[in-house]
């Protein structure tokens, strides 16, 4: 005796299973924009929506408090700052002060919403004073600044914004995908919380250990041009993803070697671009191979010609590496520092529990 399973019932069962799986996913993706090379996007805390800068060098998150003091008249702004008012049902003042090395104020918890994912009791600071100057508007310097606060993306252990998300997400992973690198570009990519970005990048990520637990920093084993001898000496043995900035930066001595191998003219001045006569042969140029990781785990990052050279607005064919002696932030001379150009057309993910960083090229 045979029995049959009604097709309509089978379809309904599959639909229910699929819907349950989708509903159970705890991954959120938000649009990433750029302002003066700072990455920012929109999140919701309580019942208010804020535009926050994503600071990969900070473990803390903060918003501008309703009673914050500014150094200018906000009437001159094209967009007024959104201030945290603490009026949501889930808002809870902790009765504690904080000092984040500049921003000071009062600690709160409230429900954080990233895309469709809700994180209850998310801790952050409501800043009353000490708002960083890059988010202020003295004398109309930055009247278009869209930033209402910061969201810390440092993978530091202990108390941090990312560690507050762990139990509410599928995976303790944050992924950055970059499609544009202009100073004021909207829709310049995306930031995914809870998983790797497999929508825009290839699903297999190559992970290596972080060499500094609080920063987006990994070790470098070697740098070479498509199988040519590696740069020797290498110089700094660490690669750092910078919080802002456009270009890629390294010591001039090593960049001179790299530039010569690629046929660029080497300037005497460390503050001058490496250039060549024409970019017409760009497609035929070799790749730059950066081998990263430690003695136990390595991965390979490939910089294609369109990622390391460009035709400038004045028609110059430029190398997109600059001498760190002139342009890198103080203290960054100990790294190969990678700005937005390095991230263009690729995904970079950090697992803040395992302490690893992974890479995948755009699909």
Automatic annotation (TrEMBL):
Annotated GO molecular function terms are:
aspartic-type endopeptidase activity
The record's CDD domains line, in alphabetical order, gives: pepsin_like
Q: Which PANTHER family match?
A: BETA-SITE APP-CLEAVING ENZYME, ISOFORM A-RELATED
Say which family it is in. Answer: Belongs to the peptidase A1 family.
InterPro entries (alphabetical): Aspartic_peptidase_A1 (IPR001461), Pepsin-like_dom (IPR034164), PEPTIDASE_A1 (IPR033121), Peptidase_aspartic_dom_sf (IPR021109)
Record key words, sorted: Signal
The Peptidase A1 domain sits at 39-360
Question: Which Gene Ontology BP annotations are present?
Answer: proteolysis
From the broadest rank down, the organism's phylogenetic lineage runs: Eukaryota, Metazoa, Ecdysozoa, Nematoda, Chromadorea
In Swiss-Prot or TrEMBL terms, this protein is called Peptidase A1 domain-containing protein
Give the residue range of the signal peptide. 1-24
